[in-house]
Amino acid sequence: MCDYTKSIQDLPSSTQERIGKDINTYISSYERKQSVKKCYDRQLSYFAQGKKLPFSEDDFRTAFRAKNFFKDLDDCGSWLEFRHYTDYDKTKLHHGNFCKRDKLCPACAVRRAYKQQNKFMSIIEENPDFLDRDWYYIVIPVRHSIQDKFEDVMALIEKMKKKISMQMRNSRRRGTGGFFSRFDGGMFSIEVTHSTNGWNVHMNLLMNAPKRSTARTARPFGRTDGRNALGGLKEHTQIYKGKKKTTYSSPELSDWLRQFNDSHINSVTPLDFSNKEEIRGNLVEILKYALKFSDLTDQKLIEVFIKTRKKRLFGTLGNLWGKGLENISLDGDEELTGEFIELIFTRTFFVQGIPTDVPTYQLYKREVKKEEVNPILFEHTFGIVVPKIATHKKYYNSAPLIMIPRGGGGNARYAIRKKE
Ligand SMILES: [Zn+2]
Q: Does residue 76 share a domain with residue 128?
């Protein structure tokens, strides 16, 4: 379907990998969204038939009412500009059009997680005292049954979230206790899946506390003689895929959780923050929450999308608050100076000028030498301007023939032209 590997085979393998991975993400994401769109149409016909659905017609219409909703979803990643900066051996997704609806768009969810991960790494690099703290990865599922509605399970987790931040705040102001009073900050994400036992909603937390040796003794740190400072953790040993696996849970946290529909299960893992790879690995667990939406069926995905409108499924607490992790921009990556190889990826619905139903993917390439960097500036225009094929041929050398329909129409929203 997409013979782009030829165009990039002379680039470093890490660049090929990055570009190949991104392109495949956008292609599969497009396919998934087509299936969600069909499901959306089915819901419309169910309403017309008077069928009872797990959401009201009003809520359904409100959630999808944004102008160009599906057009933006469709156009996400229909045009991507990568740059491989030869001086730095770095590859960046320089520009592109993104729908930014990461609950419905797996590609935007991947991009958000990736950008948040980089942001977090730069935060701890700029504030090295974060490395000198004890970090924990905590997972708390809410107890539920097959009969429970999504909104009821969701309401419990939101209540839990409120109580956690209240406990942390009260501990700072008044020195009151409780499991979460030990932490100075962290971040959380709310993950949703659905299985034979109904809606599984759980909270992932990445929390930090002062190092045991420097712990403020006025705080109720419980037993500090063991391997942890969390008032004692219970060890569980399981055999998982033939390997022995040790997990920990907190009896104190179990007791606290009882107030939420008698929940009690929890997992608390002390992390090694001296190891960058381990930090990245654990971060992914927290940040991939939006990606989990793609495991839901189209119908369930639409239900969650409607019912989590205006709800925060990711946030920061205490000392991680206000450091820019919540409002990550999905726009292009920062521009570097120097020579680069530019690769433009497009999705069109034309083969040699003839409209088709199935998308055609193209990747083409040009090298921008040092002396050209300034005089040749490209401007990417969404909408009206459609360039002549000859203009492209002049600048892109090893590319497959670019097919952009003249006169616009269809999905031809992108254009590349020389800045006058
Ligand atoms: Zn998107």
A: no
Q: Ligand 1 mean position to 258 CA, how many Å?
A: 39
Domain extent for 36: 1-100+330-374
Is pLDDT above 90 for 300?
Answer: yes
Q: Are residues 113 and 131 in the same domain?
A: yes
CA 403–ligand 1 middle distance (angstroms): 23
SS3 of residue 355 by DSSP:
strand
Same domain, 276 and 131: yes
Least confident of 17-31, 65-79, 223-237: 223-237
Domain edge (last residue) among 342, 357, 374: 374
pLDDT at 397: 43
What residues pack around ion ligand 1 (CB closer than 5 A)? 76, 99, 105, 107-108
Domain co-membership, 261 together with 181: yes
Q: How far is the CA of 271 from the centre of ligand 1 (A)?
A: 32
- Per-residue pLDDT, 229: 62
Ligand 1 centroid distance, CA of 362 (Å): 19
| Domain match, 178 and 300 both | yes
153 and 208 assigned to the same domain: yes
Alpha carbon of 5 to ligand 1 centroid (Å): 23
Nearest to 59 by CA among 418, 231, 310: 310
Residue 370's pLDDT band, with cuts at 50, 70 and 90, is low
For tokens 């809520």, name the residue: 59
Whole-structure pTM value:
0.83
User: 105 CA to middle of ligand 1, Å?
Assistant: 5
- Residue 97 CA to ligand 1 center (angstroms) comes to 8
> What's the domain count of the chain?
3
DSSP state of 333: P
Measure 40 CA to ligand 1 centroid, in angstroms.
Answer: 17
Q: How many A from CA of 239 to the centre of ligand 1?
A: 39
Ligand 1 geometric centre to CA of 390 (Å): 30
pLDDT of residue 331: 84
**Segment 396-410 mean pLDDT:** 37
* Amino acid 401: pLDDT: 35
How far apart (Å, rounded) are the C-alpha atoms in residues 70 and 37? 8
Helix or strand holding residue 165 (H, E): helix 150-174
Contact 324, 119 (CB under 8 A): yes
First to last CA, the chain: 36
Vertex 182 angle, CA 180 and 184, to 5°? 90
User: For residue 331, how far is its CA from the centre of ligand 1 (angstroms)?
Assistant: 11
Does residue 338 share a domain with residue 245? no
Ligand 1 centre from 30 Cα, in Å? Answer: 8
Same domain, 285 and 156: yes
Is the pLDDT assigned to residue 226 strictly greater than 60?
Answer: no
